[in-house]
Amino acid sequence: MKTCGLGRGTVTMRRTSFVATAVAAVLLAGCAPGTGTDGPGSSAPETPAPVPAETAQTPSPTPPSVAERAAARIASMTVRQKAEAVVMGYAAGTDPGVLSGYVEEGPAGVILMGDNIPADAASLAELTSAIARTTDPPPLVAIDQEGGVVSRLSWDDLPSALDLKGADPAAIEQAFSARGDLLAEAGVTVNFGVVADVPRGDGSFIFSRAFGTEPENVADAVAAAVRGERGRVRTTLKHFPGHGAAEGDSHHVIPQTDISYDAWRARDGAPFAAGIDAGAELVMMGHLRFTAVDDRPASLSPEWYRILREELGFDGVAVTDDLGMLMSSGDPAYGDPADNAVAALAAGADLVLMVAGSDPSTAGDMIDGIVEAAGEGALPADRLDAAVERVLALRLE
């Protein structure tokens, strides 16, 4: 056994001092703790610890997108189910059973008007919760909550567009963020609440509901309002292509203008473009005639839907303004709600809205008309499927 130290008998006196010194150095090294390398003091060479092989992992599958989920559902839907998916109607009162039954039996969306709103936010949340439980995915629950002149919620005392004319965009964003919170807490999922019209002066029908008369200011305000509601409630821009140019109350007449497309794009189109860029999920098509573009109301005009999609880059849900307003215009060409619905969908609408002049059977009549038109080819199958896919994607988000 090797000894530690330079004791007697370890090194003989016959060696020279040089050799003795060298041997002593070797022996001292041999007494040092092993370092894991071959050499004096190692009882055995140490083998480096094996590095474990990297565990093979199967990548997690990418979950399907909302659009893919919507497309998958469409593949198993009947034509009637598709027709139901693109209709939004109205039923009177605050009875959860009545409103839930209305959605369960037909349209996959409902708009809440003044008579649908209970006395407080908690009661409204109970009502919308009952509606939401009727279908999977839940139906769209919409409201016109602009604030000010057009306000369904009595407890919304936030500034409206009239109050915010000329305001800093940050103040507008804050107001619409708070309004979005009110709606989200109440269970409302779609707000028809951002007016993007550019009135020509304070005598305009739409002036009290618009952000101003200068397109640049209105565009900034609209974008701020959209950012405010973003993530809280689905935002709608209205009334495309613009009530400012086509003066008159479209609840009773079909307003008309002959301004050119270029003039429209430079002025009335600017706020819509800004709101779309800011992320608005819906655009409401107005019953407005821009005769230099199309003699038909924009809500029924393939050309205006094309402009919305191709020129402004909108890929969300195009919803008509209340088709009952077309009936109220007195024009016999628009006297049938089912015909109006089919014409709007064929032109490019994704969701058809009906309130004025409707009764509990109206939505069903519209659905029947859509089914018949699809069966006859008057409403192409791919056009109906595209509409359903956009609306379903909105409900699935």
Q: Can you walk me through this structure?
A:
The chain has helices spanning 17-30, 66-74, 79-85, 96-105, 121-132, 169-185, 215-229, 261-266, 269-278, 302-311, 323-328, 337-347, 362-376, 381-396, and strands at residues 87-89, 109-112, 140-143, 190-195, 234-240, 256-257, 282-285, 289-290, 317-320, 352-353. The chain has 397 residues and is an alpha/beta fold. The strands form two sheets. An eight-stranded parallel β-sheet has the order 9-7-5-4-3-2-1-10. Strand 4 (190-195), helix 7 and strand 5 form a beta-alpha-beta unit. It starts with 16 loop residues before the first helix and ends with a helix.
Secondary-structure map:
Elements: H1 17-30, H2 66-74, H3 79-85, E1 87-89, H4 96-105, E2 109-112, H5 121-132, E3 140-143, H6 169-185, E4 190-195, H7 215-229, E5 234-240, E6 256-257, H8 261-266, H9 269-278, E7 282-285, E8 289-290, H10 302-311, E9 317-320, H11 323-328, H12 337-347, E10 352-353, H13 362-376, H14 381-396
Parallel strand pairs: 1-2, 1-10, 2-3, 3-4, 4-5, 5-7, 6-8, 7-9
Profile the largest sheet.
Answer: 8 strands, parallel
Number of domains: 2
Give the overall pLDDT as a whole number.
88
The largest beta-sheet arranges its strands as 9-7-5-4-3-2-1-10
How many extended strands? 10
Which structural category do the helix and sheet elements fall into?
A: alpha/beta
Shape: globular
How widely separated are the two ends?
79 Å
Helix-residue proportion? 25-40%
Query: pLDDT below 50 for ≥5 consecutive residues: which ranges?
Result: 1-45
The helix count comes to 14
Strand/helix succession: HHHEHEHEHEHEEHHEEHEHHEHH
CATH topology of the largest domain: TIM Barrel
Just name the CATH architecture of the largest domain. Answer: Alpha-Beta Barrel
Strand content: 5-15%
CATH superfamily of the largest domain: Glycoside hydrolase, family 3, N-terminal domain
